[in-house]
Amino acid sequence: MGSLTVSYTKPPPFCSIPSPSPVPEFKFPAILRGPSHSTVKFRAKACVFPATDVDNSGDNGYCGSNRRRMLISISALPFLFRLNQSVDEYCAKAAESDASTYVVIKDELGKVVTKAKAAGVLRLVFHDAGTYEKDENSGGMNGSIVYELERPENAGLKKSVKILAKAKSEVDAVQSVSWADMIAVAGAEAVSLCGGPTIPVTLGRLDSLEPDAEGKLPQESLDAPGLKQCFQRKGLSTQELVALSGAHTLGGKGFGNPLVFDNSYYKILLEKPWKSSSGMSSMIGLPSDHALVEDDECLRWIKIYAEDQNKFFNDFKTAYVKLVNSGAKWRSL
Ligand code: HEM
């Protein structure tokens, strides 16, 4: 399995909405909820000035200050300063714990995700995250796919979930992990295993306890304008639609070696083999893949990625990170 960058980035602030989850939420230690260092500084300052030129009656409008209060505030500084140091320590520990959890997840995935299973695992990512609707702020990367496996569009994904369930139970024995994190990391591992880019995935997604709304994934019969609109509703651009569709290079749709993640998807799209009446060539790709080449804006990106695999890898990486963060609710830190 290819090496994966272990990175910890703080989840975006808008994502800190806790939702019910079997994964124990990080509780910010109560002790750290006290005033911050800067708050203490402000108080000390606000109390010092009136106290020098106003009497000590303590009834001025700002802080009712008197020397006693000032002394209490100042004497509290070393103690609160120690608390402030603890915030840094706490964050460092959280980052450290995520990094070690990442290693455990990666190890366990390494035991179950083979090249032959990589395509199914990567498809699972899109089917979990792809329910996201930006305007409704619904769906997204929340592990709800585990409740949606009977839906026709998810046919064939049960085996991928089963594979990951084995790895997840091993990880849970050490440190509980959400389905959403497990699937997000598994997809990145699948890509890297098959020779694609190394994709760093942030941990901390919370799982939904119910299925997402139905009918949010794009149908394979959509034309290019339909696909673009569908992706736009998920906050994904046309360029990201084209880059992410490159995932179809893995699996059995006829885009080069089914076990190798490379840019052959784009090279083959440009040849339009499905126009050929001869044998297997006409079977290559899905109607949605064929539609992309018929659209000028998509075609521009297809040509770029067909010529430059590095550019494809970089853009895929960026779009993948966006996809697995779509609609995610993050545990609070
Ligand atoms: C653009 C809209 C998309 C449509 C309409 C679509 C639809 C489909 C369909 C119908 C299949 C065939 C499933 C089967 O063989 O039973 C498939 C396969 C696959 N899809 Fe997509 N998909 C889309 C985008 C994506 C994205 C964004 C990803 C991941 C980032 C993805 C990953 C995959 C993979 C890896 C496979 C191969 C699975 C295998 O062979 O086991 N797809 N897709």
How is the topology of this model organized?
Blueprint: H1 37-53, H2 67-112, H3 115-129, H4 158-174, H5 179-193, H6 224-233, H7 238-245, H8 264-271, H9 287-293, H10 296-307, H11 309-325
Helix pairs in contact: 1-2, 2-4, 2-5, 3-4, 3-5, 7-10, 8-10, 10-11
The protein binds protoporphyrin IX containing FE.
Residues 119-120, 122-123, 125-126, 156, 218, 220, 227, 244-245, 247-248, 250-252, 286, 288 line the site of protoporphyrin IX containing FE.
What's the gist of this structure?
This protein is mainly α.
**What is the succession of H and E elements?**
HHHHHHHHHHH
Structural class: mainly alpha
**Any idea of the CATH class of the largest domain?**
Mainly Alpha
Total count of helical runs of at least 4 residues: 11
**Poorly predicted residue ranges:** 1-81
What is the CA-based Rg, rounded?
Answer: 26 Å
Oligomer designation: single chain
What portion of the residues fall into strands of 2 or more residues?
A: under 5%
Identify the CATH architecture of the largest domain: Orthogonal Bundle
* Approximate shape: globular
Q: Report the average pLDDT across residues.
A: 80
- CATH fold assignment of the largest domain: Peroxidase, domain 1
